[in-house]
Amino acid sequence: KGKLYICPTPIGNLEDITLRALRILKEVDSIAAEDTRHTLKLLRHYEIQKPLTSYHEHNETTKSQHLMDKLLRGETIALVSDAGMPGISDPGELLIKKCIKAGIAVEVLPGASAAILALVASGLDTKHFSFEGFLHRDKKKKKERLEKIKGEDRTLVFYEAPHRIKETLKVMIELLGNRKAVVARELTKKYEEFIRGSLQEIHQHFQENPPKGEMVLLCEGISPQEEEDRKKEAFEAITIKEHIL
Ligand code: SAM
């Protein structure tokens, strides 16, 4: 049987790839990439020549079967995404599940992931955190998710696109309250920047400086005081209801 290697790639700075990842990319029979043109640039930079095949969210189901056939024939494949760790808000999960089910070895290599970099640099609580990935672009679904996690006491980590960040911040202020937050922009790149403050202050910042680039949005979990207040509110609501009845 073959083997599937999950190969993280840089999230901006081309130097952020491990020696082992480079060796595996050189040794495997082929590479499955989210965007083959994007990956070609990385491979060219490191003078790696390898057959490339595309594997992205739109062909994940059909392509994973094709990749499984290759793996079952004994081939080795490295899976890469455009940036960071495959399987984290990127294709990978489905193929990994299938391999585990079929008894095909999966080896994950360590490497860059924007969420972890942003969390460590944020200055927020790193002991407990909840990775939320992308919120739904539909406002109603976005609100539903935030409603569900508003009582979470772990640091919340989101991926967000620059053209949606202001709306997301507004919805968060409305549903979570004006919590302490950080936006980590353009990590590992030339214009890396951390915007720290309350959700409202960060929203104000983006009113004055139009959001650009790739970003991770983090905010603190519910505080013990807030939790206490919410419980009291809920209790009072029940008591009032009982009183009326
Ligand atoms: N698999 C990737 C990882 O492990 O980080 C994430 C892929 S996801 C499709 C892309 C999102 O990750 C971006 O929209 C942004 O939220 C975040 N991201 C990726 N690179 C980043 C960077 N250099 N700086 C800040 N955020 C980044």
From TrEMBL:
Transmembrane segments: none annotated. Residues 3-202 form the Tetrapyrrole methylase domain. Its main location: cytoplasm. The keyword Methyltransferase applies. It is found in: Cytoplasm. GO terms for cellular component: cytoplasm. GO terms for molecular function: rRNA (cytosine-2'-O-)-methyltransferase activity. It catalyses: cytidine(1402) in 16S rRNA + S-adenosyl-L-methionine = 2'-O-methylcytidine(1402) in 16S rRNA + S-adenosyl-L-homocysteine + H(+). It comes from the Bacteria. Keywords: Cytoplasm, Methyltransferase, rRNA processing, S-adenosyl-L-methionine, Transferase. Its EC number is 2.1.1.198. Catalyzes the 2'-O-methylation of the ribose of cytidine 1402 (C1402) in 16S rRNA. Belongs to the methyltransferase superfamily. RsmI family. This is Ribosomal RNA small subunit methyltransferase I. It comes from Natronincola peptidivorans. The lineage of its organism: Bacteria, Bacillati, Bacillota, Clostridia, Peptostreptococcales. The chain holds residues 15 to 259 of 293 of the full protein.
